[in-house]
Each structure stands twice: as C-alpha cells, then as structure tokens.
UniProtKB/TrEMBL annotation:
One of its GO terms (biological process) is carbohydrate metabolic process. Gene3D superfamilies: 2.70.98.10. GO terms for molecular function: carbohydrate binding; isomerase activity. SUPFAM superfamilies: Galactose mutarotase-like (SSF74650). Pfam families: Aldose_epim. Its cofactor is Ca(2+). It comes from Maribacter vaceletii. Transmembrane segments: none annotated. It comes from the Bacteria. The keyword Calcium applies. Keywords: Calcium. Monomer. The keyword Calcium applies. This is Aldose 1-epimerase.
C-alpha cells in the first residue's frame, strides 16, 4: 500500500488502484466490500464496452484482436516505478501478441486469453497538491496504434439525494440507475461536479466525454471516456478508436473537494 499525504489530504493506492482519497476525513472513493462494485478504480484500454456480441473480436489495421469487456489492460498488473510523499508512478507494459489471462473466463466469458497486435506502455501517475489529486495517464504505443481510453473511478455517496452537474444540467441518481448497465453518456464535457455532503469536482483533459454508472445508492462511477461505446454496434467498435500519433499521448483527471 502506498500512502500520499499533504496537509489535510490522504491518498491510499493499492498496486496502482486508488482505494482511498480523504480530505479532512471526508472519504471520496467507494470502499471495497460495501455494496456496488468489487473495485474502486480501473482503466478501460484499448477498448471500452462489451465485445460478446462481436464474438469477442475488435477490428484493427493489423487484423482482429481478442478483447473482452473494457479491454485487456485491467487484467495486467502494475509495476511500481517511483514514489515520494506526494507522488506515485505505476506502469504496465505490453508486447504484441502476448496472451493475457481473462479473469472472466469461464464464468462470465468463453474466451480464456486476450491479445492485442500492438506494443504499448501505460503509465499511471498520482500527484497530490494543494489544488487536489491529479491522476495522469501516459500512453506510449506503436505509431498508428488504435485505442480507446476510459478511466473508471467509483465515488462514495454520503447523502440520500446527491446531484450530478454536467454541462450546466442537473442529473439525479435515480436517472443514472434507470439507464442500467449501458451507463448514462455525457458527451462533449470535460468537468462534472458531484454534489453530495461536499462537492467533488472531476475535471479532465483529453477525454471529452463521461459515462455515469451505478446499480446502488451508495456509489457512483463517474467515468471519463474518449468514446461512448454504445453509440455503435459491437461489430463497429473500431469506429471509436483514436490513433497514436505522438510519441506519448497524455490524459488527465483532477479531483477536487470543496
């Protein structure tokens, strides 16, 4: 467990997963073991969304790749790179064609191994400052590599009537619950504020969209995404790809508590 501390802020990271962010004792992150989700955060890469209706295949310029829901990055283990009192860096690295064990097999999937025809490294950098917590993602892949990126943090709900403010519009938790597993899309948006017992601002760079998802009243996933996967059929997921052009593509999420 890595712990970052700055003034009244405490961040706890378990093998690259953000498991706690407290400001003056106020817990921002959904806690494992409580109703809702077995994780507290994860990344969706190189695809977002389900693939079962497409026989677990996603089309790329180098042919079909075997991917389960939300890609293979979440099945890989982070290596710890650098840690200070206010910063921590973790890394995942993949080589073309390497098979990755699918944890959903066989209970929730019929594909045992996942693979991707491109080389990439994926850095996750936590930086705690006076303005809040920044999580930065740095992708370094083959030139021309297609990909989607989504960050999937779960936020703890403290009150009975929280509101979500996005693009100057108020959204209620029952509205999110009603959408179900497809998640509620918020497009062309870089900032969402969760109004609970305190206000939690989630501000992003590079993503441009969000999905909101939950199945319980004590947790809400506010997910920055590069593409909303349910905008197309599973056979057409490749239409949502970005392309790696620069040596490094950088995405940022900043969490601030008021």
């Amino acid at each position: 467990m890595v712990e970052l501390i700055l003034g009244n802020q405490i961040v706890k990271i378990d093998a690259g997963e953000l498991v706690s962010y407290q400001v003056n004792g106020y817990e921002v992150i959904h806690q494992k073991g409580t109703p809702g989700w077995r994780n507290s955060d994860t990344e969706m890469f190189p695809i977002i969304g389900p693939t079962n209706e497409a026989c677990f295949k996603v089309e790329t310029p180098k042919g079909s790749a075997t991917q389960d829901q939300h890609g293979l990055l979440r099945e890989m283990v982070y290596g710890r790179m650098e840690v200070t009192s206010t910063m921590a860096t973790f890394k995942k690295e993949y080589f073309p064609g390497k098979v990755v064990k699918n944890s959903k097999y066989p209970s929730k999937s019929n594909v045992e191994f996942l693979s991707w025809p491109y080389n990439f490294s994926f850095l996750k950098v936590f930086n705690l400052s006076d303005t809040g917590l920044e999580i930065k993602f740095i992708i370094n892949g083959d030139k021309g590599m297609p990909y989607m990126l989504g960050y999937h943090p779960a936020f703890k709900i403290h009150s009975s009537n929280p509101e979500i403010i996005a693009n100057n519009t108020k959204i209620t938790l029952p509205e999110v619950l009603k959408v179900g597993s497809r998640a509620l899309p918020i497009v062309d948006c870089d900032t969402i504020t969760l109004v609970d017992e305190k206000k939690v601002e989630i501000k992003t760079q590079g993503f441009s969209n969000f999905m909101l998802w939950t199945e319980v009243s004590n947790m809400l996933c506010v997910e920055p995404i590069s593409f909303y996967p349910y905008a197309v059929s599973q056979d057409d997921l490749h239409h949502g790809f970005k392309t790696q052009e620069a040596k490094e593509d950088t995405f940022k999420v900043h969490i601030k508590v008021f």
